[in-house]
Amino acid sequence: MGQQSPALSVVVPMYNEESVLPLLAERLRGVLDGLDETYEVVAVDDGSTDATAAALRGLRERWPQLRVIRLRRNSGHQAALNAGLMRSRGEYVVSIDADLQDPPETIADMLALARSQNLDIVYGVRADRSSDTAFKRLTAGAYYRMMRRLVGKSMPAQAGDFRLLSRTAVEALRDLPERSPVLRLVVPWLGFPSGEVRFERAERAAGRTKYPLSKMLALAAESVTSFSAAPLRVATWLGLLGVGVCALLVIAVVVAYATGHTVSGWPSILVAVLFLGAVQLLCLGLLGEYVGRIYTALLARPAYFIASDSDPGDETDAGAAPEQRAGFDPVVLVDSHR
Q: Where is the Glycosyltransferase 2-like domain (predicted)?
């Protein structure tokens, strides 16, 4: 494929998705070929340990619009997604997961809505999550309620990483200082004109989920600490609550001393020590999270390393290693470090 920018880029981050790749390629290619638009599919292999890389190479031989980017190590879903967005070239860019829970057929509706209403962002909103477990629906609902309190109502409820961005919106993301932003929060924060396309969420087509409870909790913590100082304010309020409780205990101690019942006050002292210790540890933990983020930002390490790009072009990638942002061939870089 030449260097002329296509009308549409579809970014697909993937990790150990060999079992679902044939199904994904069949459905996605059928949809994109039917759009009568020039397009590229940017598949980002996030350091897979199965046969995903080999399967992508085989697909590329039969699918010229498929572009394969391999990260040198597993960097996480958001980093892989950001890598694909930053290296895409399309006038519009759609991001979609490889598990086919978000239907590729919705891409046509997203593109049509963006063009008809001159929108820079179109969210894919899950109208029905009955295919998910009750626990998944409960935790996802709690996550989106919390995120909407941080970002505001500009963030649609039940909108994940299935979205369409205009080239203007992608360039705005490129200009942000964060190396690996949580896009579910940052994209609504940009404030570009946006719309929604609703769809029914399907079951995973094949393979196992890559978002167990531990990663869901990590995403929630990353979302909160990367976007808001609200937890620090929680620590402040807990500190004020602790001061109030201590003031009441001081009054109780004075009254007990005045009435000659000082010995009987040991339970209140024990409660006060335990309460203040817990509050202090919680506050230190919250401060540690933010200090850790400051330390990571000062190190200025890239969020990911590009091992290879089947069609590198001349784009600048703000999240990659410094030598890669300067325009060097990433494959040469791999060889030169041996």
A: 9-173
Tell me which DSSP letter residue 265 carries. Answer: G
Q: What is the span of the domain harbouring residue 210?
A: 8-227+302-336
Which tens digits make up the pLDDT trace of 6-51? 999 999 999 999 999 999 999 999 999 999 899 999 999 999 999 9
Q: Are 219 and 182 in contact (CB under 8 A)?
A: yes
**pLDDT exceeds cutoff 50 at 337:** no
Q: How far apart are CA 79 and CA 321, in angstroms?
A: 13
- 94 and 223 assigned to the same domain: yes
Backbone angles phi, psi at 146, to 5 degrees: -65, -40
Long-range contacts of 49-57 (CB under 8 A, 24+ apart): 49/16, 50/16, 50/18, 51/18, 52/14, 52/15, 52/16, 52/17, 52/18, 52/21, 55/18, 55/21, 55/22, 56/21
* Average pLDDT of the chain, as a whole number: 78
Our CA dihedral for 129, 137, 47, 309, rounded to 10 degrees, sits at 40
Q: What angle do CA 175, 180, 185 make, to 5 degrees?
A: 80
pLDDT exceeds 80 at position 305: yes
The answer on 291 and 179 residing in a single domain is no
Say whether both 25 and 118 belong to one domain.
Answer: yes
